[in-house]
Amino acid sequence: GGGFGSSVPLKGKTSPDLFFRLNAELRAAVFDERYGDAARLRDELAIVRSNDPLLSARDTLKNALDEEDYKTAATLRDRVRELMRQRSEGNGFSLNRISHLLVRDGSVTKVVSTAADGSVPISHTKFSEKNSAYQQPSWSPSGDYLAVVKVSVVDPKQRRLLVLNVFENELVVDWNIEETP
Fold first, then answer.
1. 162 vs 20: CA distance, rounded Å
2. CA 21 to the chain's CA centroid
3. What is the arrangement of strands in the sheet containing 121-127, beginning at the earlier edge strand?
4. Domain limit, last residue, from 56, 89, 122
5. Based on the number of CB atoms within 10 Å of its own CB, is 161 exposed (0-12), middle (13-18) or buried (19 or more)?
């Protein structure tokens, strides 16, 4: 098997689903202070990242940028784009599913999605602002990014476009949407 207790991921199953599943298991293991399991899952994630062409290319691109090797980074950027195109045209994320849930925990709102099979909840980010609604969720074709529009329920003219990198679990775009004439 892969994940969920086995020590080696299934060969050929290095899809975003397996990545998300292992990442969710890792977070749960750390939260529950099961550090032996966390170390094993960390190692499984490293194997998944290195065996998946897109994830591996993204990691190599990040390293090239960190080392300021921009010539290599430009070549890798083109390779990552091609791999993302191939994944989105092939067996990428299924688009026939619920794209996200908004979970309230006191005054904190979390944007949560699931693996494509719906089995693993993935918390992308937290928003602490009150009186906001999140609308029009949309996944990138490769499944790397989730975009939502944040609208103030107090002043609907206050709108922001939020783009979340689901692999890195970070907010990458927070853009004010201007009112069109």
1. 20
2. 11
3. 101-105, 108-114, 121-127
4. 89
5. middle
pLDDT digits (tens), the chain, 181 positions = 333 344 443 444 446 667 777 877 888 888 889 999 999 999 998 998 888 888 888 889 989 989 999 999 989 988 888 887 777 665 544 444 455 566 666 666 666 666 555 555 556 555 555 667 667 777 776 677 888 888 776 776 778 888 888 777 778 888 888 765 4
Q: Is 34 exposed, middle or buried (0-12, 13-18, 19+ CB in 10 A)?
A: middle
CA distance to 10, 93, 105, 119, per residue, from 110 (Å): 31, 21, 8, 18
Given a contact cutoff of 8 angstroms between Cβ atoms, the answer to whether 10 and 1 are in contact is yes
Identify whether residues 130 and 157 lie together within a single domain: yes
How many structural domains comprise the chain?
A: 2
Q: Is 148 a member of any domain?
A: yes
Within-domain flag for 155: yes
Find the domain containing 121 and state its range.
101-177
